Each structure stands twice: as C-alpha cells, then as structure tokens.
Amino acid sequence: MDGGSGGLEVLSGAPHSVSCASSSGVEKDSFERLPPPEHALSPWTRMHQLFSQVLGQRDLSRAGDLFSLEDAEIEDCLSQALDQIKTISCSPDYLTNDNDQAVVEICITRITTAIRETSSIERHSVALVGLWESCLEHNLTPQGENTEDTPHAKIASDITSCILQNYSCPSVMVLAVPVAVRFLQRGNRELSRNMSSYLSLAAIAKADLLAEHTEAITLSVLGGRENK
Q: A single GO molecular function, which one (predicted)?
C-alpha cells in the first residue's frame, strides 16, 4: 500500500482509537475485514472478555463470575488486568466510589489466587509490584476515629502476602524489598507489622537484598516499639 497513513490509524492513549477511512484507492470495507497488525493490538484485545467487561465497565454484577473461570484461562492477561486496576485505583473519584472499590477488591482476589495456583508470580511481578507501589501515593492511615483501612491500604494489604510469600525468589524480592521498606515508613501499623514479618523471612533467605535497607528497617522497628 502506498503511504499507509490514510488507512489504519492507531492513536496512542487508552483506550486506543482506530480510524478507518477510505483512501489510497482502498475501500473502507476492506479495512473492516482486516485484523489490526499484532503490534497495534491494545491490552483490551488480549484481555479475557470477562475481565475486559468487569474492569472496563466497572461491572460489579459480573465480577463474581471471574471465579468461574479456570486459572489457566486467565493467566495470560493478569498483568494487563493489574495495570487497569492501577488506573482505576488512581482515579480522582476512587476514594468515594464504592462500586469501583468493590470491583477492584474482587478482581485482586481473583488475580492473586490465579497467580498462586499457576505459580506465575515471576511473570506478573512487575505489574503486581507496580500496583502495590502505587498505593504509597495515597493515604494509608485511617483518619480521626475511623479505624477501617483506607481503600488503598486495603489494596496494599491484599497484595502483600501474594508478593512477599515469595521471599525465597530473588527476582521477585529485588522488586519488592525497596517497596516493602517504604511501606514500613508510612505509619500504617498493621501493614508495617506484616512487612516486618515477611522481611525477616527474606533476610534469612537472601540477606544481601536487605543490606542497604538496614537503617530504615531498624528505625521502623524502634518506632513500632515506642508506639506500643
């Protein structure tokens, strides 16, 4: 095709927009019959249809159906789903949107279960740790008399064990330890307690990964004792 710019146009951004115009002597119908090139597929194209519906439409009514799917059936798209969850949880209205919070909570439970059952933590560790780390950009400590975890503290808590139970896996811990240390310094007592327990196990399995974080860990432990 001469100059393909008038045919299939893939624009950056999410979701991707596709424009099919008639040009260069090629009819519009021709484009509609052609699949997009592999490199132009958006994450939604590769995501399981049910995950796409639940996350794309924030469809709480279908979220529970994710548990009817086989783990192997959805394993390929877990990283894409985690990236979309991060987008949802970082949106300005997430803190006040009970529907979105419920969708995210169910999807995270389904994803972490699938990761454990398929032993695919290494494949999805970048996306999982990325979502985990994004929680640090938000409030993690209950305010006033409210003792309930904040929405982002709930996400962090739900992900923590899935990541840090793999304390003997160096490729996962290289990503996770620096983030875990930052959680120690954020003041959420329950999260800090869980991090300390897992980091102790990580220190036994792979002490060199924690060496550069010794001071921060020590200060966190001392701070925890003072607050008891």
A: phosphatidylinositol-5-phosphate binding
For residue 34, give every residue at least 6 positions away whose Cβ sits within 8 Å of its Cβ, in sequence order, or none. Answer: 8
The DSSP H or E segment spanning 19 is: strand 18-20
What is the structure's pLDDT at 202? 80
Give the CA dihedral 165, 170, 174, 180, nearest 10 degrees.
Answer: 20
Q: Rounded CA gap, 198 and 201, in Å?
A: 5
- Global pTM reads 0.74
* Average pLDDT score over the chain: 79
Q: How far apart are CA 2 and CA 92, in angstroms?
A: 44
Cβ-based neighbours of 22, under 8 Å, separated by 6 or more: 28
% the chain with pLDDT above 70:
72
> What is the pLDDT, as a whole number, of residue 107?
98
Burial class (CB in 10 A: 0-12, 13-18, 19+), 60: middle
CA dist., res. 13 & res. 156, Å (int):
27
Q: How confident is the model at residue 222 (pLDDT cuts 50, 70, 90)?
A: low
**Cα–Cα distance, 227 to 10 (Å, whole number):** 55
Distance CA 182, CA 50 (A): 34
- For the cut 80, the answer to whether the pLDDT of residue 82 exceeds it is yes
By C-alpha distance, which of 25, 78, 5, 71 is closest to 47?
78
Q: Is 187 helix (H, G, I), strand (E, B) or coil?
A: coil
Q: Which two tokens stand for residue 93?
A: 């209205």
Tokens (6 digits) for 38: 């592999």
Bridge partners for 19 per DSSP: 9
